[in-house]
Design a protein that fits this description.
Blueprint lengths: L3 H7 L3 E8 L4 E7 L1 H6 L12 H4 L8 H11 L3 E7 L7 E8 L5 E8 L1 H22 L3 E6 L4 E4 L1 H7 L3 H6 L9 H16 L4 E8 L5 E12 L5 E10 L1 H75 L5 H30 L6 E4 H17 L3 E7 L3 E4 L1 H21 L5 E10 L2 E8 L29 H13 L2 E6 L4 E8 L6
């Protein structure tokens, strides 16, 4: 009697016998000849007992397990088109399946090299590749060097509203697109054929929706094995919505820039208006100061004139020349004082032409004339200790800023009836800043409102007594005119204002 296992071991065909499991839902290997073991990457003589589903989980064209089930159910032989060999990346097997009378399934397979496998898979791969191209969300086409289309995918045909047969039947774009679009497409073809890098262009193409769409076109030339140009491959992406959104965004940005520019100009005009409003409010106070400053010298001048008149009328003997010279000198001194006073006020109200440099000591001396006898009065002690350095900026603006602070401090002292009122101002260098500290003993600022004192129109006075612009304008001056900063906090007995102004520290 023949030994079939010995016989199967000699033939150059893989023979595998499978036993059905669970009524044909899976199949277990019960025998493999040596050729089959080689196809499945098993060692020679190795005993194998595995289920079909663990050996061949995937078939290139059809589920191998489904094929086994069909053979088991019908008894009809089936062809195994292509199955990857277990453990091999580039080797497959093909063959047939048979059912024995006992229900066992026998497979007869031979190895297939890569070249043969490609022949078997080529139709399926072409079908799969075409499916991928047709379902891609972008337009894809190819054309020869003369411009005749050789392939166009379904997405592009559907978007344009032209059938594939029509695309492939015409020699170029002219029968398909409006003349201007066709000419533009042909120019981009010529440019793409001349360069090795992809060529990008935007084309206005009428779509099936009746609208002209802006389409991004990317064309890449195709070279043959001898590096000759054989044609082009093109990709298209509808950019209409994105470009419209970009244009809308640009329009919004332009409108926003214009609005910001207008708001900045309106803010600048508002600041100028507030500055002038504060200036006029201060001017009324300063006119009162001038009257106060001049009252005593004018009274003195009047007394001198009266005294000289009485002497002249009495016609007393004596050196009239000496009396008149003393009278003239005294009057000249008073008149010069009045002239200096009015000059200080006049210069204070002149607009600054721009940045200049000034000494802090000179600024302080001029400032004392403006505020000492009027804002401070006779019951407020005013002390200054300013390190004398050069400051670059707007002199009159700094005077106004300090006057605003002094005025608020003096008002607090008078309001709280402080008997020995005092305002002290000191200036010193700290790092790259000139620091000015102004403190008073007027009782400080209510903590509930201290964060609002620099807000415009904020005032604790009656509307008839204050504008609420003084400290706001002070902050604007320090920040905008001097690139500095100002802050306030409550000290032991009153408010402490701190101004920081960048400076070089150069001494006068």
């Amino acid at each position: 009697m023949f030994n079939f296992e010995e016989l199967f071991g000699l033939i150059d065909v893989g023979i595998t016998v499978y036993e059905p499991l669970e009524k044909g839902d899976d199949f277990k290997v019960v025998y493999l000849n040596e050729k089959a073991k080689g196809l499945c990457n098993f060692a020679e003589g190795e005993s194998v007992s595995e289920a079909l589903s663990t050996l061949f989980p995937v078939n290139a064209t059809r589920s191998l397990l489904d094929l086994f089930k069909e053979v088991y159910r019908t008894g009809e032989p089936q062809e195994i088109t292509l199955v990857p060999c277990v453990g091999y990346a580039r080797q497959w097997q093909e063959g047939y399946l048979y059912r024995l009378s006992g229900g066992q399934i026998v497979s007869r397979c031979t190895g297939v090299q890569e070249a043969r496998a490609r022949e078997i898979m080529a139709p399926h791969e072409r079908l799969t590749f075409r499916t991928i191209l047709d379902t891609a969300p972008i337009g894809i086409w190819s054309q020869d060097a003369s411009g005749r289309l050789q392939f166009v995918n379904k997405a592009f045909c559907d978007a344009i509203g032209i059938r594939e047969e029509t695309f492939l039947s015409v020699p170029h774009y002219e029968p398909l697109y409006p003349p201007e679009t066709a000419q533009s497409c042909m120019r981009s073809d010529e440019a793409a054929l001349q360069q090795s890098e992809p060529h990008l262009s935007y084309e206005k193409i009428p779509f099936v929706d009746g609208k002209v769409h802006e389409v991004l076109i990317v064309k890449t030339r195709v070279e043959d094995e001898e590096h000759g140009v054989s044609g082009l491959v093109g990709l298209s992406l509808d950019m209409t919505e994105q470009l419209e959104a970009e244009r809308k965004l640009e329009s919004i940005n332009r409108e926003l820039e214009e609005r910001i520019s207008k708001e900045i100009e309106a803010s600048r005009q508002k600041d100028n208006m507030l500055y002038q409003q504060n200036k006029f409010a201060a001017m009324g106070e300063m006119i009162s100061n001038i009257a106060h400053q001049w009252r005593q010298p004018l009274n003195t001048l009047g007394l001198l004139l009266t005294d000289m008149t009485v002497k002249m009328m009495m016609e007393k003997s004596g050196d009239r020349a000496h009396d008149f010279e003393a009278f003239q000198a005294h009057c000249s001194e008073i008149i010069q004082y009045l002239s200096d006073t009015i000059d200080d006020f006049r210069f204070y109200y002149q607009e600054d032409d721009g940045h200049n440099t000034f000494c802090m000591r000179d600024m302080d001396r001029s400032l004392q004339i403006l505020v000492k006898s009027s804002i401070m009065g006779n019951h407020i002690r005013y002390e200054t200790d300013l390190k004398n350095v050069l400051i670059s900026g707007y002199l009159n603006n700094l005077k106004q800023a300090l006057i605003n602070i002094y005025s608020n401090a003096a008002n607090a002292i008078k309001k709280n009836r402080v008997e020995e009122g005092a305002i002290k101002c000191r200036g010193f260098i700290e790092g790259s800043d000139y620091v000015i500290e102004i403190c008073d003993n007027g009782g400080g600022i209510d903590e509930a409102i201290i964060d609002k004192v620099f807000d415009p129109y904020f005032t604790t006075k009656h509307k008839s007594q204050g504008t609420g612009l003084g400290l706001y304008m002070t902050k604007q001056i320090i920040e905008q005119k001097f690139n500095g900063s100002i802050s306030v906090k409550n000290d032991k007995s009153g408010a402490l204002f701190t101004i920081r102004i960048p400076c070089s520290g150069e001494a006068c």
